[in-house]
Amino acid sequence: MILDSINFTEFPSHISTTPLSMSTPPFTSNDKRKPSSETQTTDFPHPYKKEKVEPLYTKTKNTRCYRHSSSNYASEFNKNNLILSQKLQNFSREEQCKIAAIWDSFSSSSADCRLLMLEGLVNLSCVRQLSYLNQEVKKQLRVDFMASASPEIGFKILSFLDAKSLCQAARVSKTWAKLANEDLLWHRMCVQHIDKVCHKCGWGLPLLNRNNRKKPIKANFASSDSTENNLSCSPNQNQVAIDQDYLYLQNTCSPRVFTTEYSCNPDDANCLTLNHTDSSNYQPEQDDNTKLSCFHGESVKNNQKKSWKKVFAERQIVAKNWKLLRYNTTVMNGDDSEVLCQSSNDTYIISAQKSGRISVFNSSSGTFLYSITHSTHPVTSLALNDCIFISGSLDGSIKVWCYGEGRLIRSITPFQNQGVTALKSQDKKLATGCINGNISIFDFDKGRMYTLEGHTDKINQLIFLGDDYLFSCSDDSTIRRWVLSEKKCTHIYNGHSHIIRGISLNISSFLSTDSKPSNNNHKLFSGSLDGTIRVWDIDSGKCLSVLCYHGEPIWTLASDSFRLLSTHNNGKICIWDSESHQLLHVLHTSNTVINSISLSDSSFKFGDSSGRIIKYSFNSQNDF
């Protein structure tokens, strides 16, 4: 017997008091650790742990054991030794020595001998012991392939996961989290989803503007009469001059004072300017606590970049709010006059009333800022750029305002006895539609104006596509496509049986940087009082689809890459999928006719006949 040959006097009492964690794990051939001097010179080594142990190799196949070659094995070994030493104290000294001898014999045996020992132990085990082995072996066989593999392999594996799976992978361990939160992975995810629909998962994320980029300023707003001939809006604002009855804008005007804030709101896309650009060039927003002053020329210092994972998460929340129709509403009241048109940007919401007045609101809070008077005739159209807005009235006048101060820059009347019914600006061009069906183009860069003739009735809406293409809809039930360089109409879209109130281009049409449309299948939406929405191929002029909701007359349209909004005669707003053309939601928003609507990635605003401006916000910062 083994116990007969053991002289217990050789084993001091420290066997029961020294924890097993004091011992070291076996050394492999590639292990750079050296045994400490204490271990080499100790007088009383553990009977169940030799100082030198053969490397744990499988000699038959000459492959290294994954478990013992893992970088985490040393810590696991010490932890398990501590647990085993505590359990060993519950046995007598004789049993302790017996167990230690078995462990020592097993650790010093070759790989083949170990397998044979295990087979014999399994053969001698009862059901309870086999059940325990089954539970323990499953735990020990769990392999962390991410920790053992190189970071490049782990990165490649995680690149095949979707966003939800990546978030779940980040919760496995710190090693997994470091790989799953890699910025390059989430950048790919953003490029795959932002401003487009992913065909693998069916989700698309909004591009989003920069929100709260400019704060409205407080100023003493002068009346229209006192500023009629005043050309100066602020020291940094550009001047407006009249040259041969043409409106000529020099440079671009900037608001008087504004601050730059980069918040956690996903409304921040540095690539988004007046024209949409490819979302792959998008850079994440930056946290900035400094203020930018147009007066003092203070530079903005961006100290910290927002991670792409955070960019994706914020836009995912906005997209989910749209899908589940979770929103907050803000009601803005101007005067009691009917709202004929309204337009908005990141900072301001501007509405034009039938009474001839223009009301300006804060876009984020909905606070009323000021009101100005254009004329005594109804204001039918608005056009905005970075710092000025242009208004047109039925008396034929066009006025340029600085909305930072509410000051009139210049007023002209290019049309005699011809009311202005539509305005649209693009870079240094301004298109105006008149009540007689003519379209006038003001080219500020060249300082000239020319007229496009073709429509036979009032122009209702104008849309630029690039710098050289213009779309117009009219009361004559037609839509025309104009080539500005050639000053002629190239396409006429026929199909509606009644007045066409609004048109809208699929926003993906603006992703090309070229002035000419590419070969992509661009879509044009048109809404008519005949109760239908028609989807057109802008190149061929063919009607691709006809949408209808109970035959209610349609007053205006707005669309982006993912959805199409239509307002109806009964005060309802229909939300359609811009790709599949399916009706997603119907909102009961007003009891009167909605004359104008504007759409952004995280909200939409509309004005109705009661004089109200209502904003529906799907922003991620809102609490629902």
UniProtKB/TrEMBL annotation:
The lineage's top-level taxon is Eukaryota
| Chain residue ranges for the region called Disordered | 17-47
Q: Which UniProt keywords apply?
A: Repeat, Ubl conjugation pathway, WD repeat
Query: Which stretches are WD repeats?
Result: 372-411, 452-492, 518-546
Bias kind Polar residues: ranges: 17-29
Every copy of the F-box domain together lies at: 143-189
Q: What is this protein called?
A: F-box domain-containing protein
Native organism is Smittium simulii
Lineage, uppermost ranks: Eukaryota, Fungi, Fungi incertae sedis, Zoopagomycota, Kickxellomycotina
